[in-house]
Amino acid sequence: MTTAAPLRTVVTGAASGIGYAIAELLRQRGDSVVGIDREPGDGIVIAELSAPAERESAVAAVIRQLGGVDVLVNVAGVYRTGSIHNSGFGDWRAVWSVNLDAPLDLMRLITPGMIEQEFGRIVNITSVHAAFAQPASLAYDVSKAGLEAATRSVALDLARHGVLANAVAPGFVRTRMSQLADGTDETDTDAFRARYFESGRLPLGRGALAGEIAPAVAFLTDRANTYITGQSIKVDGGLTMTF
Questions:
Q1: CB of 212 within 8 A of CB of 178?
Q2: Residues belonging to the active site
Q3: What's the CA dihedral at 87, 90, 96, 101 to 10 degrees?
Q4: pLDDT above 90 (res 203)
Q5: Would you say 37 and 102 are in contact if contact means Cβ atoms under 8 Å apart?
Q6: What are the DSSP E strand ranges found in the chain?
C-alpha cells in the first residue's frame, strides 16, 4: 500500500495559544508545518499579518519552504474592547485587518495552488461571537461573523476543485487573549463563575484549553474528511445551547 505524502500545512498565529496547539497536533500526525506569526518560534515565518506586503512575502516564503500548500489554518486574531458609543473606524480597522483581511488575503494567495493540484483543506478559526454578541465587542463580533460568512463563500467557490473550507468556532478558551490586566484568566474570576458556571450557561463548567480546539481542526483538515465543507463547528463546552 502506498503511503500518502505528509500534508504541507500553514498555521497562522502558531507561536502561542490555539495556533500553537494546532500546529503541534498536526506535526504529531505527520504534517510538514510552517507557522506565520509576528512572534518568533520554531518553524515560524515572521510577518505582521495586518500588512498586505508582509502577507505576500510570508506566503512566498512558506511556498518556498514547503513546495506548495495542502492545508491552511487561519488562527491569528486580536481583540479590542469597544462599542458603537466609544469606538470608531480606526479601532475597528485595527481588529479587522488581522481577523478578517488577513485570512481572506491568505486564502486568495494560497488557493490557486490548491486548485491546480485539485486538493486543499482550509479551516478558519472564528468564534461563538460570529453568531452571538457581547457588550463592547463590536469590532471583534463583526470580524468573526464576516470570516464565518467568507468561509461559506469560499467553500462554494472551491467546491468543484477538491478544496474544502470550514470554520471552527471556539467559546471561552484559556489563552493570552482571555488574560486580564493583572495576569489572571477571566474564567477564574468570581463574576465569570457566577455568570457562566453557577448559572449553568456553560454546561461543562470551565473554559477550554487551547489543545481542546485542535482535534476539530485536525479532523477537518485530514484527507479522511471528503464531504464536509462550508460548515462551522462550535467547540464551546455547550455554551451556545443555553443562549
A1: no
A2: 140
A3: 160
A4: yes
A5: no
A6: 8-12, 32-37, 44-46, 71-74, 120-125, 163-170, 232-235
Report the distance separating Cα 237 and Cα 207, nearest Å. 8
Q: Do the beta carbons of residue 22 and residue 14 sit within 8 Å? A: yes
- Is the pLDDT reported for residue 1 higher than 90? no
In this structure, how many other beta carbons lie within 10 angstroms of the beta carbon of residue 27? 16
Are 45 and 35 in contact, with CB atoms under 8 Å apart? yes
Query: How many CB atoms lie under 10 A from the CB of residue 76?
Result: 26
* Inter-residue contact 206 to 172 (CB < 8 Å): no
Mark 157-184 as b/e (b = at least 16 C-beta within 10 Å).
ebeebebbbbbbbbbbbbbeebeeeeee
**pLDDT of 19-63, one tens digit each?**
999 999 999 999 999 999 999 999 999 999 999 999 999 999 999
**Strands 71-74 and 232-235: what pairing?**
unpaired
pLDDT digits (tens, 9 = 90+) for 104-129: 999 999 999 999 999 999 999 999 99
Residues 85 and 95 sit within 8 Å (Cβ to Cβ): no
Cα–chain center distance at 216 = 11
- Give the whole-angstrom CA distance, residue 141 versus residue 96: 10
User: Which grid coordinates belong to 203?
Assistant: 454546561
Return the C-alpha torsion angle 77, 50, 58, 168, nearest 10.
30
Tens-place pLDDT, residues 129-183: 999 998 999 999 999 999 999 999 999 999 999 999 999 999 999 998 888 888 8
